[in-house]
Hints:
Strand content: under 5%
Number of helices: 6
Largest sheet: none
Mean pLDDT: 77
Number of domains: 1
Keywords: Signal
Signal peptide: 1-24
Amino acid sequence: MSSFIKYNIRLTMMLFLFNNTADASMPFDEGFSYCFTLPRNTVENNEFDCKTRVFEESNDALKKETEKLKAHIFKNYDNPWLLDDTEGIGIEIKDVFWQKFSSSQENWLASRNTFCSAEASLPGSWASAAGDIEISCIITMNRRRIDEIKMLYPSQDDGQKSTEKENH
């Protein structure tokens, strides 16, 4: 048997044993994936700038959604709905909600970051892309959190839509 054939057999066996091709797909967010089509070494409109922009837009969208929820809660939950007001200081439902939601959001952000860090540690042969995988995971998780907030508090969008209709 020629050395070329032996080499190919060994190579095939190694690839089969050490490369989990089913698990090695790179889970990039669709918007983030576009950035990889851009050149790396240009001064403007390069891959890094695109990744940074998409990441920041994702974080901004999540912040905007939580601010929109806060505005909705503070507008629609007012006096005389007092809660846990044993001292008569006027703790309102909206304040209690926002305190608990803010705590929940902080815990969710910590969980998201840890989860995405774990996700980025899985790629094996894609280890050089671990940072990109983590960022893409954060972008995806942000989108899902926005969807979750909209699902749990759909009436906040109703007010937004009616305001938009009045302005047109």
